[in-house]
Amino acid sequence: MLVIKNKMKFIRGILLIIIVLALAIWGLWLAISSLISIFSEDQDTNINTENENEPKQQTNSISNEATQVSSNVNVSNVNANIEVLQQWNLKLVNKDNSVNRDYVPELEEIDDGVMFDKRAISYLKDMINAMYKENITNVWVASAYRTYDRQEELFNNKVQYYKNEGNDQEEAEKLAQMLVQRPEMSEHNLGLAADFNKVDNDFEDTKAFAWLQKNAQDYGFILRYPKDKQDITGISYESWHWRYVGAEHAKVIKEKGFCLEEYIEYLKGTEEV
Ligand SMILES: [Zn+2]
């Protein structure tokens, strides 16, 4: 009986050990698996964070690059534009930007005492020749460079005309200014403006005008005082007055529908594009 009892004790002992071991192994497995899961979750989180970060970082780097590129462009544009704005052919003359009385460009004769800036005269000649080639021959430059004194004389004559009509000095000057620029405000002092034919708006109905509207920009010329820009230029529409600015600029001015004042602002970067 004792042997049997002992055997039973032994077996129970063995069973107990097996159960304890099993529990221990299970516990250990749980612990290991939870550790594994924690570790793998960590990895997932890491991957997720990385994934989330990656595009952000990419966006950041792209936007940084973009900022760099755009700021580079801006900076170089500003530098380039400052140089461009100082070019002789972009010289702005209007009520706010006067031309110095002493300014006399180097001149060359187009025809019969009509003078133009030497640096631009070939473009004017080429333009007129191109019109001739298309059988537009009823076109001539009536007036181009004017001295300060000549412009002053023209202005004073116009003022006198309005005074004779019964206006006082101030009123007469105001009226005259709509048609003839004050000497310090005239582009003709630059030698870069050409007045065609009879210097009136009948020019608008000529083949030459239609041709200029279409092609003048290729030769560097712009219609300086357009009908729809009178509030900006401060000058009445002048279909006959064409200004040399250079083809590079004239093409942009034409394409964007600017007047010269707007183009200068655009180059300065203050005009919204
Ligand atoms: Zn003119």
Question: Can you lay out the helices and strands and say which pair or pack?
Answer:
Layout: H1 2-85, E1 107-111, E2 114-117, H2 121-133, E3 141-143, H3 148-164, H4 169-179, E4 193-196, H5 207-215, E5 221-225, H6 230-233, E6 238-244, H7 247-256, H8 260-268
Antiparallel strand pairs: 1-2, 3-4, 4-6, 5-6
Helix pairs in contact: 3-4
List keywords for this structure.
273 residues, alpha+beta, Muramoyl-pentapeptide Carboxypeptidase, domain 2, 2 domains, 4-stranded antiparallel beta sheet, 6 strands, 10% strand, binds zinc ion
Please explain how this structure is put together:
- With 273 residues, the chain is of the alpha+beta class.
- It has 2 domains: 1-77; 88-146 and 186-268, Muramoyl-pentapeptide Carboxypeptidase, domain 2.
- It contains 8 helices and 6 strands; from the N terminus they run H-E-E-H-E-H-H-E-H-E-H-E-H-H.
- It has helices at residues 2-85, 121-133, 148-164, 169-179, 207-215, 230-233, 247-256, 260-268, and strands at residues 107-111, 114-117, 141-143, 193-196, 221-225, 238-244.
- Strands 3-4-6-5 form a 4-stranded antiparallel β-sheet. It has a two-stranded antiparallel sheet with strand order 1-2.
- A hairpin with a 2-residue loop joins strand 1 (107-111) and strand 2 (114-117).
- Helix 3 packs across helix 4.
- Residues 37-75 have low confidence and may be disordered.
- The chain binds zinc ion.
- The site of zinc ion has 4 residues, from strand 4.
